[in-house]
Predict the structure.
Amino acid sequence: MFGYIWEYVYTSFLRYWLKWLIRQVTGTCELQRICSGHKPGAARTTKAEYSLQSSKNKVLRGALETTKDSLEQCVDQIMKVKNIKPAKDPKFKESLNICLLQITGYSSLYISVEDLRKEVFSSDNPEHEAMILKLWDLLMPTVKLESRITKQWGDIGFQGEDPKTDFRGMGLLGLINLVFFSENYTAEARQVLSHANHPKLGYSYAIVGINLTEMAYSLLKSGALKPHFYNAVQGTPELQHFHQLYCYLAYEFDKFWVAEEPESIMQFNQYREKFHNIVRTHLQDPDVCLTLTVGSKN
């Protein structure tokens, strides 16, 4: 209870006067001190984001929702409101610009990911059909698919004879992630598939992959991935960066599963939650960067 009371008093009253006092002493505003006192990445951008969110000024709060096209104008407005002279602080504009690209880019990325998640896989869509067949060819290059609907899909971890039924939860997003991993990290994806087909430690490769897409999506939606993207992308995070994160999760989960040696696939939820907690712990590190670099074709 005391913690909540203190937080309210600090954010509502003390923070404003503390900022005012420090500005009188240093001659710089909070955003200037953040941009000059912290290295680029999550250490800087998360503090800048909090500063903007907490501001009583509409221009500063509105910066969190600005578009990429009007971002430079937005930075100029902030500098005017805060009376920041470019000659006295020449690096501030560029630093804040990068922070805002990351902050607003994260929001835009979530919208793009959500759109793909909501897009239903359709057998009548030639692009969707091409993707699912491409996934097979990437993972099983020496085995010909007998027909579009076949039990063979079970060899790469789908539940039924038609994989489209397995994409209901994550929509097209689940398929795109599977294809991206297989296309950009082919050797690693095939290695993971071989582990998934192990007679004792095996698991359903595709189904687990879709489950990991849900994990990545949930982390993105909650904001937990901000430190990663603020460190990994010095600008606007794009869809490919989300797919890269999925590749990290797919590869690392396989290593985790093999190392843990579960007694049965029936324990999947238990180990999935354990892996989820490990990832969340990593994301609490301000220097976190969950990037898979081995074998990348990019």
Q: What stands out?
A: The chain has a mean pLDDT of 91. The CA atoms of residues 64 and 103 lie 7 Å apart. The two ends are 51 Å apart (CA to CA). Residues 92-118 form the longest helix (27 residues).
